[in-house]
Design goal:
alpha+beta; 159 residues; three-stranded parallel sheet; four-stranded antiparallel sheet
C-alpha cells in the first residue's frame, strides 16, 4: 500500500514507515501502520493525499538465501517487500491452499498457519496478481513467512 502526498509530508514519530519523496510505503508487515499515517495526513492543509496499492515486484536481490537443512536452494527474492531479519526465520512449513483458493484469506481458516511458513504455488490471482495475490491472504492469516514456488524448470532472472 502506498499513500502518495502532493505537498509537505511529515511522518508521525510513533510509526516506522519509510518515506521516499512524499510516498509512504507500507511493507506487508507494516500494513497496520497505513491507517495511522492516513489519519495524520488526510486533513493536513496544503496536501492532496491518495492511496494506491503497490504489489511486490521482482528485481535482483542478492542478499536472499534459502536453506533447507544444510542444503542451499536457489531463491529469487522479491524487492520492495518486507525483508527477513539477519537471524532468518525458522518455523514449521505448511502447504497453503491450492489454485485460486490460495487467493482468498478465508481459505486459510482451519489450516493452522499462524506463525508458520506457508508454501504456496505461484498462481495468477484475480485479487492481486501472482505475488501480492498470494502473499496478502497468507499475511492476513498471520503467517511467519510465505514461500511462493513455481513448477517450471527454468530459473527466473532479473532481465
Amino acid at each position: 500500500m502506498a499513500i502518495y502526498i502532493q505537498g509537505l509530508f511529515n511522518a508521525p514519530a510513533d510509526s516506522s514507515p519509510r518515506t521516499i519523496h512524499g510516498i509512504f510505503l507500507a511493507r506487508p508487515l507494516q500494513w497496520n501502520a497505513e491507517p495511522l499515517c492516513w489519519s495524520h495526513i488526510a486533513n493536513v492543509t496544503g496536501t492532496k493525499p491518495w492511496r494506491q496499492d503497490i504489489p511486490p515486484w521482482f528485481g535482483l536481490v542478492e542478499s536472499s538465501s534459502f536453506k533447507v537443512g544444510d542444503e542451499e536452494l536457489y531463491v529469487y527474492g522479491i524487492t520492495r517487500s518486507s525483508f527477513t531479519s539477519g537471524e532468518g526465520v525458522s518455523s514449521e512449513t505448511v502447504l497453503g491452499p491450492p489454485g485460486e483458493e490460495g487467493c482468498y484469506a478465508a481459505n486459510y481458516d482451519g489450516l493452522n498457519v499462524k506463525g508458520k511458513i506457508v508454501l504456496t504455488q505461484r498462481y495468477r490471482c484475480p485479487t492481486g496478481g501472482t505475488l501480492t495475490g498470494r502473499v496478502r491472504p497468507a499475511k492476513e492469516a498471520v503467517t511467519a513467512a510465505v514461500i511462493i514456488y513455481r513448477d517450471l524448470t527454468t530459473t527466473p532472472t532479473h532481465c
